[in-house]
Write a structure and sequence with these properties.
Elements: E1 5-9, H1 19-27, H2 40-50, E2 57-62, H3 64-75, E3 80-86, H4 93-96, E4 107-112, H5 120-130, E5 134-139, H6 146-151, H7 154-159
Parallel strand pairs: 1-2, 2-3, 3-4, 4-5
């Protein structure tokens, strides 16, 4: 087990007991997986309190959790070592209004071509504009990315 600060942020309707949370907990027993409820501002307050005054976080965010991770990295880039975003909800106005090249954190995004919730082409366009260091993977999967999540080499993506 590596001594890393690792957090998973679930989606809007998700929880710390969802499929991705369970998968990641098996791979990384030390991972922090809090539950988030309420509107975006309330969730961001809780996330900021959890990650307060700590650095070197690796953030995995799914859908709305991806939006939250991206917004946190924008506000506190010095606290985040890496972002891994799964079908992130970057279409939210809070992200779409960010300026060009405003998130210097290395970011990996996986987004499905069959995503009927968040359009992959729009997310890619927004991501390429805002993230300075971006590795964007378009995969044959839907918004849940259940198959993709099972096949990601999580150890390599987190620790490389």
């Amino acid at each position: 087990m590596r001594n890393q600060k690792l957090i998973f942020i679930h989606g809007l309707e998700g929880s710390s007991q969802g499929n991705k949370a369970k998968l990641l907990r098996k791979i990384f027993p030390e991972i922090l997986i809090p539950d988030f409820y309420g509107p975006l501002a309330q969730r961001m307050e809780l996330l900021t309190a959890i990650l307060h005054e700590s650095e070197s976080w690796k953030i995995i965010g799914s859908s709305f959790g991806g939006l939250m991770g991206a917004l946190f990295a924008h506000q506190f880039p010095q606290r985040v070592d890496k972002l891994i975003l799964l079908a992130p909800a970057l279409v939210w106005p809070e992200f779409a209004q960010l300026h060009k090249a405003s998130i210097p954190v290395p970011t990996v995004i996986f987004h499905g071509t069959h995503d009927a919730v968040i359009p992959v082409n729009l997310v890619r366009k927004l991501a390429e504009r805002v993230f300075v260091i971006l590795d964007f993977h378009t995969v044959k999967d839907d918004h849940g990315l259940h198959e993709t999540a099972q096949n990601i080499d999580w150890q390599a993506i987190i620790y490389v």
